[in-house]
């Protein structure tokens, strides 16, 4: 299981998902402590791992030296029931919104967990449920992190209908033990819609001060769609759905949310 890393402490958060504190190690041109984090999902594996290719995340100081990027060792060991070969670590990299020096989210959506009799069932899961048609979720193909939320798309859930999972965790030392999860729990059956293919949280959409979840389903009704949802206490509630105009356009493939034009 990939760890949550913050300083010298690590704890599991979600299978197939990594969060880490961005390293800050020297003086920079524009702002002290600034680094660029970039994913390399086809990068070779570390030599001690039973894999040829896992992907990786690199930390690059923003300075005059273009050669001093450092690989972040996020996956250094593997359990017997895990397969990290071809997991595409770094396919999604995001930082906590509005948090300078906060945590970073990095995902590998092709991470596999082995289950069943004699470890015969290979499931490309991320965070997944042992329910019918829930074995290929592709968790982490999209995602992000705010001060309190970690949100990830799972476009493979329920025969590729897709979903989004949000994990809320208290942001202060007194509430850091508290957590809850939200997802879309009343979706109409739309196989192969790919909801969660893209996802973000932004303010000033449905509410000026609270985050709105925005997710794309590029194969919804063959035209693609983008859903704006309210983040409730225990679920995500769709408020508005925007549909693409053309069949096969993959509308909703990416979501950047709000910009002022």
Automatic annotation (TrEMBL):
GO terms for biological process: cell adhesion mediated by integrin; cell-cell adhesion; cell-matrix adhesion; integrin-mediated signaling pathway; leukocyte migration. Coiled coil: none annotated. It comes from the Eukaryota. GO terms for cellular component: external side of plasma membrane; integrin complex. Transmembrane segments: none annotated. One of its GO terms (molecular function) is integrin binding. This is Uncharacterized protein. It comes from Conger conger (Conger eel).
């Amino acid at each position: 299981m990939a760890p949550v890393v913050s300083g010298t402490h690590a704890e599991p958060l979600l299978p197939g998902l990594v969060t880490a504190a961005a390293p800050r190690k020297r003086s920079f041109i524009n702002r002290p402590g600034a680094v660029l984090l970039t994913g390399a999902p086809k990068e070779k594996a570390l030599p001690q791992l039973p894999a040829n290719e896992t992907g990786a995340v690199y930390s690059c100081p923003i300075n005059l030296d273009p050669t001093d990027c450092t690989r972040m060792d996020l996956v250094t060991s593997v359990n017997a029931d895990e397969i990290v070969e071809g997991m595409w670590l770094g396919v999604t990299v995001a930082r906590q919104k509005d948090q300078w020096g906060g945590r970073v989210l990095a995902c590998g959506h092709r991470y596999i967990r082995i289950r069943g009799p004699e470890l015969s069932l290979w499931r490309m899961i991320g965070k997944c449920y042992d329910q019918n048609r829930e074995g290929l979720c592709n968790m982490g193909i999209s995602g992000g992190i705010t001060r309190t939320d970690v949100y990830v798309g799972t476009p493979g859930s329920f025969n590729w209908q897709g979903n989004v999972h949000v994990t809320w965790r208290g942001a202060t030392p007194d509430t850091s033990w508290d957590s809850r999860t939200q997802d879309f729990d009343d979706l109409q059956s739309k196989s192969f819609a790919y909801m969660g293919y893209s996802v973000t949280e932004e303010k000033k959409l449905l509410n000026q001060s609270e985050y709105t979840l925005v997710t794309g389903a590029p194969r919804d009704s063959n035209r693609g769609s983008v859903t704006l949802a309210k983040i409730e206490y225990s679920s995500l509630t769709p408020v508005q759905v925007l549909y693409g105009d053309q069949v096969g356009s993959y509308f909703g493939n990416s979501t950047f949310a709000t910009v002022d034009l």
